[in-house]
């Protein structure tokens, strides 16, 4: 029962390299392993969540993992589409936007 769709972008800084793919892959692995429904895009990953607590727990896991990888700074961009009256699903939002 998803009450929000969160669009998340995580940018590790202070990695000592211009390549971030191994860090981004690790973040995607964390989201996948969480069991949450998600869809990865070119710049953001959309995630279906039921509560702000789930988001906080997910961000905490991401941060701990990146710090363990030696990341010195992390920039997060979080966009939350929150519904109180009904469930939200990524695929339905996309279908409506594309007129399908």
UniProtKB/TrEMBL annotation:
GO terms for cellular component: cytosol. It comes from the Archaea. Pfam families: Thiamine_BP. Residues 6-97 form the Thiamine-binding protein domain. Belongs to the UPF0045 family. NCBIfam families: MTH1187 family thiamine-binding protein. This is Thiamine-binding protein domain-containing protein. It comes from Pyrobaculum islandicum (strain DSM 4184 / JCM 9189 / GEO3).
């Amino acid at each position: 029962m998803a009450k929000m769709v969160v669009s998340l972008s995580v940018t590790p800084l202070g990695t000592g390299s211009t390549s971030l793919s191994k860090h981004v892959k690790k973040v995607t692995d964390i989201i996948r392993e969480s069991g949450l429904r998600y869809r990865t895009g070119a710049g953001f990953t959309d995630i279906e969540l039921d509560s702000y607590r789930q988001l906080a727990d997910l961000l905490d896991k991401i941060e701990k993992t990146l710090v363990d990888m030696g990341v010195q700074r992390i920039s997060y961009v979080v966009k939350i589409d929150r519904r109180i009256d009904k469930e939200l699903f990524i695929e339905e939002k996309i279908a409506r936007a594309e007129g399908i």
